[in-house]
## 1
Amino acid sequence: MTNFPGIIKSKLPRTGTSIFAVMSQLAVDHKAINLSQGFPDFEVSPELIDLISHYMNKGFNQYAPMAGVPLLRERISEKIEKAYGFKYDPDKEINITAGATQGLYSAIACMVRDEDEVIIFEPAYDSYAPAVQLCGGTVKYAKLEAPEYTINWQKVSRMLTNRTRMIIINSPHNPSGSILRKSDLMALEHLIKNMDIVVLSDEVYEHLIYNGEQHESVCKYPGLAERSFITGSFGKTFHATGWKMGYVLAPANLMKEFRKSHQFIVFTCNTPVQHAIADFLGNEKNYTSLSKFYQKKRDLFTEMIRPSRFRIIPSHGTYFQLVDYSDISDEKDMDFAVRLIKEHGIATIPVSPFYHKGDDHKILRLCFAKKEETLEKAAKILCKI
Ligand code: PMP
Ligand code: GLN
């Protein structure tokens, strides 16, 4: 076919294909062990799969209500109240989304206007900046600071202008595995008090937090809850990233705006999966055991790679582990990661694509949401490099 003959004025001229798609494809092409894109290599609970087929067979196959299946919204409300002591109204303050990605996009689309500024923290998950740019906004980049990828709130305060419309935070944090603590949330709450700034809090890894630490949801802080959208993802919580099922929480007046954009971006999401997850959420053991489950994997994996020449950077949450390879090579992280796939059969994610200027600190991200046997094979390879 011939190409479009006119001029394409790209809305995202500097955006390429997502690093997750690139590295996963390379892993497939070279039959490498894939610790790159974040997804489990083990199965979803058979009970949950049975529930989905049950609801499909029962005829729950047409459009769900725009906001999502009511029972699922009720169950989310109960779960959030139990965990964080804050109640979201299932009718007015909760919306089911096609994964967190669509929740993030719809929240940005309903809030950000031309020339509004949005602050994001780098290294940053890759969907935030393009979503802001597609909506005409300008991204203002702050940096998480070494060695623990923490936020310097004083620096953030100097970035605020009368155009600042939104601040996007993410805890537990992809890719670093850092977490925001009480003092961070209090600093943010204080910083934007009395300003027309909303917070978009990406909390998809809320249940993946280690060493007994507690997830600090923005909804625990009244001054933040009243101005925040929270995104959640059942893909992370139920090991089913391919189902693209998540939710957004926000106070009623923000949710009203959210639904205006949501209804024309996706309108509604997969019906039988919503019913099945509603049932499954009824048993809280189905998600409260996740931290223990993943901490075991993290600890096993880090112990196995400790003898390697990779330096382990502590991970407090998520299913990602950063490693510094500067004792092994001074290659660029992208070149090194590609070589690991081609020569050693192991796929990882270089961290430079999480920075708009491609900052290269010689760090790779490894996903440990894998079976023990996969982690053992991967560790053997890493120890030989
Ligand atoms: N935010 C972060 C930080 C993520 O790591 C992911 C995982 N892909 C998402 C959002 C998107 O989640 P989902 O797959 O539910 O769209
Ligand atoms: N969140 C996952 C990761 O960080 C994958 C996201 C994606 O493939 N878009 O690897």
Note: The mean pLDDT is 97.
## 2
Amino acid sequence: MNFNLCSFIATKVKIVTLATSIFKATYKMKVDQVSKRLQVLAISETLAMAQKSRELRSQGFDIIDLSLGEPDFNTPEHIKEAGVEAIRQNFTHYSPVPGYLDLRQAIVTKMKRDSGLDFTADQVVVSNGAKQSIGNVLLSTVDPGDEVIMPAPYWVSYPEIIKMAEGKAVVVNAGIEQNFKITAGQLEAAITPKTRAFLFSSPSNPTGEIYSRSELSELAAVFEKHPQILIISDEIYECINYDGKHQSITQFEPIRDRVAIINGVSKGYAMTGWRIGYMVGPLWLAIACQKLQGHYTSGASSIAQKASIAGLIGDQSAIKIMVAEFKSRRDLVVKRLSAIPGVRTNNPPGAFYVLPDVTAFIGKSDGQTLIASETDLVLYLLHEAHVAMVSGSAFGAPGCIRISFSTSQENINKAIDRIAGALSRLK
Ligand code: PMP
Ligand code: GLU
């Protein structure tokens, strides 16, 4: 065996071992020592896959990471400057639990400017990222056994946060043939006397699909008949929309007083690490979220809050540049994936994800590895193509894989060349 072949085999063994360890890491916890509440939670597969890519890269593997959903752009300069200025001005103390008043007013201004909706600052609660805002709302409203309806594909953390609240996730499936969007009829059929909330994202993670105004209006008409349901509308990808104006279900007057809008600066302003998200909703809910957050994390970072004001009401031109680039990448990724035999892809009008259906490869093998599921396919592609993606199973989308195209067009081309090569070896 010559040296090259030895190192090639060693490399493969290492990658398989590491890839497998992502899923095993969760179970290394001493099960008897952690709470039952934690035992039932799954690890966040988006974060686990991103961590795995970093580890493999640091060991010298040329991994293209299409797993994590975060803009690859840096935070615009004027926002960074506002953060630096906040430090100089000594905004380094505890902030009010729901956020500084000027940030909450900036959010109110933004809601009026972008959606024409009127809110007051006391209806806003700023948190450490939109993820915490979702947690605040669910923990503040869901009692054990309450049902939370969730269209699938859903974002990976939704079912886990519902579990933390001891609620029961009721999944309503929407496949690629219906553009991954549920109908009003499906929603109606899922509602029971125990339904407490409905949780969805539009633009969606993981599909990039957007509910149109008329589709939202049909869903709103169903909610009108069920006044006990709180609608949690995750609009974190609001800015990343390639087709038109953002549509929020909040626009429908009869249900407006029971919509909790979730948003933040992470995606639109390329500020994922600053950790600022917010909830805008009925006053009673804002007070409840504030009470919870007051015992849990207090106010979010003072510096990041001040920087977020510059993002939300400052110069918006950087967003347009980022969105134009995301759109070119969307076009590229869809064109290239559509040319791979066996891959069926959607054409997402928003966010930076595409969710191709890869069921055609399930049951196939390259002669060594049998692909029994979409998770096996993700591991095979990590192993064979050195491209990291996330299994659809993490998002309630069996048969699919999620690709985040928040990387350069050069990387996208290189990744899809490698994916196409590895898939062509599956017979
Ligand atoms: N909702 C969705 C749909 C997301 O994709 C994310 C990803 N980060 C979040 C919420 C959480 O955002 P944040 O980084 O602000 O916590
Ligand atoms: N929301 C992003 C994603 O889905 C970031 C990771 C996370 O917060 O789960 O990839």
Note: The first strand starts at residue 64 and ends at 65.
## 3
Amino acid sequence: MPTFEIGDVDFLLDGRPHQVISGALHYFRVHPEQWADRIRKARLMGLNTIETYVAWNFHAPERGRFDLDGPRDLGRFLDLVAAEGMHAIVRPGPYICAEWDGGGLPGWLLADPEVGVRRHEPRYLAAIAQYYDQLLPLVAERQVTRGGPVIAVQVENEYGAYGDDQDYLRALIAMNRERGIEVPLLSCDQADDAMQARGSVPELHRTVTFGSRAKERLDLLRRHQPTGPLMCMEFWNGWFDSWGQHHHVAPAETNAQDLDDLLAMGASVNLYMFHGGTNFGFTGGANDKGTYLPITTSYDYDAPLAEHGAVTAKWHAMREVISRYAPVPDELPADPAPAPELTVDLDRRLPLADALPALGEPAAWDHLPTTDELGHWTGFTLYRTEVTAEDRVLTLAEVRDRALVALDGEPVGVLSRTEHSRTIALPARAGELTLLLEDQGRVNYGPRIGEAKGLIGPARTATRELTDWTVTPLRLDAVEPALAALLDAAPAVAAGTPVAGPAFLRGTFPADAGADHFLRTDGWGKGLVWVNGFLLGRYWSAGPTATLYVPGPLLRSGDNEVVVLELHGAEGARVAFAAGPDLGSSEV
Ligand code: GLA
């Protein structure tokens, strides 16, 4: 059987020096019917390896559930990598960062404040053991030593940026080895002496993450690890976008030059990202380095392969660089055809208030609960209470992360964590106060990993603390039959009528099965979009993204359905599909 080992200066594949030229492609950010196409385009660029994280909470959305089917079928993904003749690197965390909700750590695990986060704590380790029991058999049986594609597994992620608990790292190593992982175990850390020192142990082979100045960064890694292959585990050839900020781009020529410098040193590389994909549904994470910044739905990343699978100038530039170091196939992928352009009238309108019976069950509380206390790990939650004319103002300890405030259904304003606003004046009248709370994504980096979501009390007014609440977690992960039935029965609205939210709108449009679409979101405020019942994700006029990518496999021939939940208001009850993506304006 083949072997893959750490040599004195190189990785050794069957005993011979081997330069890993890898690209990151997260199966959980790509429609499963497109996995093969994206992997093939990686091989055609000259890559010999595909790297993927594993997002624990994607497989385990609830305590006691573990899913490996359809979009979660990691075994099938790895088999497709093997079928392309490529190797795989798997990074199963348990923490992955990755601009993913909570960095992959499940909300249901960390809701218990007794459970440790990213340290040697028995309850935390017991949960990881169970996760590994469910996941690692499929990785172990696909190791290169057993005839499969997997050449290495990474433990934790940039741990030196968070902690220094070596017992924790050693427990993770032992749990991997006990479950049959025999290929090299790696760590990755930023190009920072303190982080490199804290983030690894001698049983792990160290790698480094950076986006430029390859020689300087690899020299730093060398100081912490005198022998063995040099590897940049994340060569940041682009960057992620946050709502309300500009769209990030990284020039292809600069990336190509840095890649050339790195490969010329004989180092191995994993391009982060080769293909970014999409944060579908409620899967995007957030950063909070003093200001909370949620991640956009698009995870295009300005990567060589665009979000919709098109090769870019960067793909060509990198292919040319790689061809100086490794054989590159002659074949070039075809450009995708422009997507259909059409306008769709949304002819059904259902106010959110009328849809509530289909979305969740209200429960009474004698204090203000977090959404973690409700066992509701993502998305939207409706909080209700009664106020009097004397209350006059509402102030919360914290809002995680954004709430639409209304009195008897009339909009009062918005509380936003990003804007550090947690106090709002109320009209001087009695009525039902509602806060439609949006969890905009769990923080995926830094000390706020693991914090609870929801409204954080106490909730005070000018005269008292509000303690009697009725709270409804909303099921919005798919257009469920009960919601579909209410939409069927909703009154028709005239084409183009302005939309007052929060309300659902629905329309139908013709398509060819399998054709990619790009839904323009300009003219709309903030909300969610489903196509044929699948939650594409969030849109927001704050930008930068102005289109949502609709993967072709979601479309069928004949009638297709689009449902929008608009929170604020829209110019007109219609949506448009565009020929290509519009990811917003960039700084350069
Ligand atoms: C770090 C993390 C990745 C990702 C990138 C930024 O390198 O390891 O998971 O968050 O930053 O995209």
Note: The radius of gyration is 25 Å.
## 4
Amino acid sequence: MSAKIIDGKKIAAEVLAEVERDVRRLKEERGIQPGLAVVLVGENPASRVYVRNKTQACERAGIFSQQYNLPAGTSEAEVLELIDTLNHQENIHGILIQSPLPEPLDEDSIFNAVDPRKDVDGFHPVNLGKLALGDPTGFVACTPAGVVELLRRAGIETAGKHVVVLGRSRIVGKPMALLMLLKGKFADATVTICHSKSRDLPRITRQADILIAAIGRPRMVQADMVKEGVVVIDVGINREETAGEKSKLAGDVDFEAVAAKASAITPVPGGVGPMTIAMLMSNTLKAARALLKKSAATPARAGL
Ligand code: GUN
């Protein structure tokens, strides 16, 4: 079988063009420019690249952005103080704290401090709860939201299919599985989540109609772990250091071998990666619009 390559770069460009158009309209018609604060703590080289890409995407989409680079030794109290300021800042509609945070910072208490209405990452328990309940007013984490958008725009149906998610992180695995479980189009799947303690992984992954790999181990998914005709979504972005050469990116899937059996597959790079940023822009626009709806509702309530 020769697999269709799902072009994340092209699909992300479509999403970004729609966001850019809607941001322009929001500015022209309502005088509001969506704003995103991006917080980076420490010197993680991959995080620095991601954060730079996010602020550049804001510029292209017409979204105002503010970047905060805090040194690795920043205390939890200092990070929480910055989040509190941003929670109250009117021109900031979305707040992103780049993960992973350096030790000993506690990601849970820091993510939980972001106002859920500005949590464009979808990491806050309120937003994860809304996702679990199918409440569309919440924010969905950008990478899994991007995977759904890829499937939708590539015309890959999920209803009744067996979707196997490899990985159970707060950023990808858990929200990904919840999205696939929702009722409706490009959801309605039968879902299995696997993780590092799952037994006999290949037996489970071979049952997948759609396999979503987000385990963070380069080329872990091999051809003997999938069935003919599977759709494979590779979320992995692993940097491989080779002596004397520039580091290379590798996904969680052995692309060449698995593509020979798959009906469709995402490449790395150029698959899921660009979608994460596109969905971040889309979530920031949604946060700015939600504020508008709320202020429109206030006078009516006051008049009761
Ligand atoms: N690190 C890797 N992916 C993400 C993401 O989607 N959001 C944040 N905040 N950090 C990340």
Note: Confidence is low (pLDDT under 50) at residues 300-304.
